[in-house]
Amino acid sequence: MGAVLEIRHSIRAFWLGLSVFALTACGSLREEGTGAQVTELATSLIIGQTTAPAAPAASVSRDEILNNPGKYMRVNTRDIDRWDTMVQAAQNGSRVTWVDTENNTITLENGVIVATRGLPRDLMGAEVGQVWAAIRAGGGNAQRTHEFLTDGDQISRELLQCRIAQQGADTVQRLGQTLESTRFEEKCEGEGLQLTNIYWVNRSGRLLRSLQAISPDAGYLQLDVF
Fold first, then answer.
1. CA separation (Å) from 185 to 45, 163, 215?
2. Are the C-beta atoms of 39 and 30 separated by less than 8 Å?
3. Rounded distance, CA 94 to CA 138, Å?
4. How far apart are CA 37 and CA 54, in angstroms?
5. How many Å apart are CA 122 and CA 158, to the nearest integer?
6. Domains of the chain
7. How many CB atoms are closer than 10 A to CB 147?
8. Residue pLDDT, tens place only, 51-108
9. pLDDT per position as a tens digit, 159-200
């Protein structure tokens, strides 16, 4: 799909120094940070503050997915070509957390990834409000920030300058359906990181599919929200 995650040599060393933490090991995140907000929401599912639905069955049928809009999300880890089905576990405003059979989670804000848990080199938290605003406006400039844990259990933040451009009409093929959409491309560059994300948005302004970068280790995720 033409999206390429370009990693400079210096950023590889940076990423290798990061620790991968489970949700319950994130208590050291500062309270006001995006990572802390996401962690608080997702951790509540584990300790019982919120009743979470059961993880999806290992195999979910096409009819089950299509007949329950909003319940399922299909995720393709592009670097290893692995498909997983996730169910909605929690919602806090525009943020939705999804969980799979192995309790890996992805948190989205208006369809844009703001955190992952369980992937190689997780995204601990992100601020992406300007990205969604630019998509809704038909394109424009935006800043986004990504937060990661260092070896010293501190938050390191990467600031990215992004340009979102409309690429025109496109179709999404999934589970035997053909859906009309508008394709957007987001090109971002920071001090040590460059990435390109792609979004397919329907007429009602809903993200049908996206291809989003997580990290050099995790690569890209293709998300299909039904």
1. 33, 8, 18
2. no
3. 20
4. 23
5. 14
6. 62-225 (2.40.360.10)
7. 22
8. 334 445 557 899 999 999 989 999 998 776 778 899 999 999 999 999 998 899 999 9
9. 999 999 999 999 999 999 999 999 999 999 998 788 999 999
DSSP 199-213: EEE-TTS-EEEEEEE
The DSSP bridge pattern shows strands 6-7 and 193-201 to be antiparallel
Nearest partner of 131 among 161, 157, 105, 171, judged by Cα: 161
Q: Assign residue 220 a region: left if phi > 0, alpha if psi is -120 to 50, beta otherwise?
A: beta
CB contact set of 142 (below 8 Å; sequence gap of 6+):
130, 131, 133, 134, 162, 163, 164, 186
User: Could you tell me which of 113, 134, 116, 145 has the C-alpha nearest to residue 186?
Assistant: 134
Q: Which amino acid is at 226?
A: F
Token look-up 């979004």 returns 199
Six-digit token string for 104:
């890996």
Residue 57 one-letter amino acid = A
Tokens encoding 65:
């997915």
Residue bearing tokens 């620790």? 19
| Residue 61, amino acid | S
pTM, full prediction: 0.74
